[in-house]
Specification:
The complex is a heterodimer of chains A (324) and B (105). Chain A is mainly α and 324 residues long. Helix content of chain A is 69%, strand content 0%. Chain A starts with a helix and ends with a helix. The longest helix of chain B has 39 residues. The chains are: A mainly alpha (324), B mainly alpha (105).
Chain lengths: 324, 105
Amino acid sequence: MTGAFDIILCLMILGAAGIALFVRDALAAIAFFIAFGNLLGLAWLGLDAVNVALAEIALGAGVTGVLLILARARLLALGDDATCADTSAWLRAGALAACAGFVLLLAAAVLSIPPESGLDRAVAPLMPGLGIENRVTGVLLAFRAYDTLLESFVLLGALVAVWSLAPAGVWPGRPADLGVADVPMRRVARSFGRFLLPVALVMAAYLVWAGSDVPGGAFQAGTVLAGGLMVSAIGGAIGLPRSDLPGLRVALVLGPLVFLLIGLAGMGFGGFLVYPEGSAKAAILAIEYSLFLSIGATLALLVAGPNVIGWPDPAGGTDRHSDC
Amino acid sequence: MVTGHVYALTGAVLAGLGLFAFITLRHTLRQLLAINVVGAGIFLILGGLGRGADATDPFPQALVITGIVVAVALTAFGAAMIVRLAEARVATKAATRPDGGKPGP
């Protein structure tokens, strides 16, 4: 029953993961981690879960990869090349035995459960009531909307946590400049960023709209927007905003806030996060468009990291002091 | 063996592999990467076991998308903490060097 494709793909995933974990050089490890994420995206396609494949490749491989590369570059600048000292053979043998036992138990548990898509049949008859066709979007924003609401707050909370790591005395400031130092490279990255940002914006807006009926959605679209913002910031086409900019604050909070307000309005129709009959699609789209803006801004700032001392202001260092 | 089990078993091996790396690797950035591999394995178990004959259960799919976003948030916070820790270490080293202290980890 199993195609050779699935087995080969799974072996490639395991191989890529093994190299990503155990290769000596940190940059090679991260490169293999990104390859691993993309192969995993293919695995999700093999499972016919296109929504997850999009999210895995954009977030799991893309954003996580950029985060790790940036962290490694910042560690390197501090004299830490992120290679590991060897651990004792006893520890490795013990860990190997424990993890092998863990895998065997997990595999036995997995094999005892027959794979089935039981809830798919439960969801299918409920979809016409929502007016959308993508069942995963239906689960995310209607049947299990509570999870997604909390998740949008987790993302916001993570940004607050990252910002709180700024050294004393730099608040309110800016995150470290993402721009490349090399001038010709920066010029190339800048024109690419200028070209990419509008394309990313249109593509992201389309992904949200399409996410109602075909694979897509707010999280995938927000990541596309964040990618456009990051590439533009790397080329210097856009500067990173000050963390106390009112417009930025609105963009970050808009998604969770609109979600919460529509959820509270649902109390009038029978309960928290209940959408009025007939206008469920309008409510879902309103939530998704505001979420996508907030997710894009939050992810880009999460990658940029906490505020730093002595940000070199390309617009002239004076305005930084004058508007404090 | 059905397709769902192949992916779920791959997920189980990934979780074990990531756990082993998390224990034996002695650098926080590499451990952060290992946590991500464990997470990916668990997602694959969830997705694989939801793979029916004709469709994949939308509930695990939505759960996994939520999980991926939370994993990214965790990774961002972890990476920021690791860099901050290294900065603090460098600052301590610079402060102890003049009075002959050994700059060790």
